[in-house]
Design goal:
With 250 residues, the protein is α/β, with parallel strands linked by helices. It contains 6 helices and 13 strands. Strand 11 and strand 12 form a beta hairpin.
Length: 250
Amino acid sequence: MSSEVSRAEICAVACADTWRDAGEALASPFGAIPALGARLARLTTAPDLLLTDGEAVLLADTPALGQETRDVTAEGWMPYRQVLDLLAGGRRQVMMGATQIDRYGNQNISRIGPWDRPKVQLIGARGAPGNSVNHVTNYWVPGHGKRIFVESVDLVCGVGHDRAVGSAGRFHDVQVVVTNLGVLDFAGPGATMRLRSVHPGVTVEQVQDSTGFELDTGSVDETRLPSAAELELIRTVLDPDGLRYQEIPA
């Protein structure tokens, strides 16, 4: 096994850390790296994490990325009404993508441009508004750049900290954004985005230059490297075919 750690592996571990000690919660990862992170968390720091086949079957095993789930032991059936019960009870933890995201964590996956004449029509708000209510929400951005990290999103899908005010604020828990350059949270002034860590080989200036608004960079660490045990799991158990490199090339 190579001792050189790839950026994709660092990102997978950073995603896994968002599920650390999650308990008996349903993991909803969007993207190959978050899916790898959820599986890694289940085998290391979050053994009670619930994984599904993407539809209604709860998985007893922790399959590799790309593995047919019909070959995996099922431990339960979760019809749609039970998914809603989990959501209402706050026992789900999601990692969504973002076409745009602003300093407060407002996320857009619906359209680019004005309402009456959009430049690009995307997938729609989907479940993003509900995803950012009553359970932990994190984001994954594989291509950190100014077109994604914008001063103001064109449409709010996932709700940010500036809009989660009053009594509704008690049910809002948007925590971190993991990107190909670093990890950001919302511990900046007024719950704005702060650069928590940069990945090895990335500078604070590089992240700031790739962001369309000023970040809080007062205290920036280096993102941790995977342990030897985590690398072994990633390379030989969870992603032996290297699907992680489709999102973050080696």
